[in-house]
Sequence to fold (236 residues):
Amino acid sequence: MSVDNFFQEEFFTDILRPVEPKKPASRQSASALQLLPAPAPARTPAQTPVQTPVSAIAPLPVSDPGALPEYRVVRSPRRKRSISAFRKNGLIEIHVPSRTTRREEAELVPEMIAMVLARESKRRRSDEKLSEIAQQLLNEFLPDFDERPASVTWRPMRDRWGSCTTVDRTIRISDRLNSVPDFVLRCVLFHELIHLRIPDHQTEFYAYLQRFPDRERAEAFLDGYEAGLLAPPAQG
Fold:
């Protein structure tokens, strides 16, 4: 199974490229210079505001990028003073007014990221909670399973919702799912628990998966979440 309803804005960024002043030729008047053909760079509309899609906005450079989680700064002309930050599909987005300077952004980024992480830590499910849910699922839907996971942990994963290594019985769940509704997390975890016995996705695997009652609803949620159409629970 490869999960935020955001009000989508159009984001603009002004790309200003300073134009090198032309050095006047020796002993030529200004009017004479104006008659000379302008060089190609001067004809480029370098000072025209350019609409930039959000996906093209690069994170600010920081002295130690490894110290911060993945994030991006989104500049919006609709914002006058307000600043907001939240996690969208695993990435922290920081929305600022378009007139915010780069220096101001550099000061805001660590503070806003810390706010998001603190907010998430208050409602974050622990590894112990994951193991507890796994045991509940085994008891309720897989009572015929003797297999038990050696560990169930959160992992930063961008390309999948979960994974299971059948050989050592370890299960990993993408930390992007830490804030999704309970039935969605349970469905992904149930999927991985089946892999304790069946490593592939053949007929027998789906026969077990059918036991989960909210499977179709959970998969629909995950499809929307992946496409960025559904918002995570309250961002505070």
Notes: The chain has a mean pLDDT of 73. The longest strand covers residues 91-97. The two ends are 29 Å apart (CA to CA).
